[in-house]
Design a protein that fits this description.
The two termini are 19 Å apart. This protein has a single domain, classed as Peptide deformylase (Peptide Deformylase), CATH 3.90.45.10. The chain has 3 helices and 9 strands. The strands form 3 sheets. Strands 1-2-3-6-7 form a 5-stranded antiparallel sheet, sandwiched between helices. A two-stranded antiparallel sheet has the order 4-5. It has a two-stranded antiparallel sheet with strand order 8-9. It is 28% helix and 34% strand. It is α+β, with helices and mostly antiparallel strands.
Length: 169
């Protein structure tokens, strides 16, 4: 599911609002800065985020990056690849557009961490994983580390049903 391009959101209704609330709760518990719908098994183009900069939590629906510029290398992790992080080069600034939960058009000029967050979450909506940004040797080592971690950990219930999506603990 994480390798598929998510479908556009066509209706903003109470179920979507509830799902966003649930995703925010999951994101905060993880803890993370953002969480895309495909990460919780929903193939729709939206994500939730909160940089903790006093702006509160946000939702961006059907986002599109319309411009990007510069280059910035930064250590990046992902809730879908727990415990691993990598220095990833991405554009330093982006202009992203989309819609909020009230159906209002959103246009944001972002740089550094916020720009990175938008690019990372948009990758999830396009079926791109963090590992796809690594060179062949790094990707091979990352997959090896993930397999080793899975084999070393005792089997336990990692998912629980919460409403209409899977909630990661």
């Amino acid at each position: 599911m994480l390798r598929q391009r998510a479908d556009e959101v066509t209706d903003i209704d109470s179920r979507l609002v509830q799902l966003c609330d649930d995703m925010l709760e999951t994101m905060y518990e993880a803890p993370g800065l953002g969480l895309a719908a495909p990460q919780v098994g929903v193939q729709k183009r939206f994500f939730v985020y909160d940089l903790g900069a006093g702006d509160g939590s946000q939702v961006l629906i059907n986002p599109t990056i319309t411009e990007s510029d510069g280059e910035w290398e930064y250590y990046e992790g992902c809730l879908s690849v727990p415990g691993l992080g990598f220095d990833i080069v991405r554009p330093k600034t982006v202009h992203i557009t989309g819609v909020d939960l009230d159906g209002n058009e959103v246009s944001i000029e972002a740089d550094e961490l916020l720009a990175r967050l938008f690019q990372h979450e948009l990758d999830h909506l396009d079926g791109v994983l963090l590992l796809d940004h690594l060179d062949d040797d790094q990707r091979k080592e990352a997959k090896k580390a993930l397999r080793k971690r899975v084999m070393a950990e005792p089997v336990q219930e990692d998912l629980e049903t919460s409403g209409s999506f899977l909630k990661f603990r």
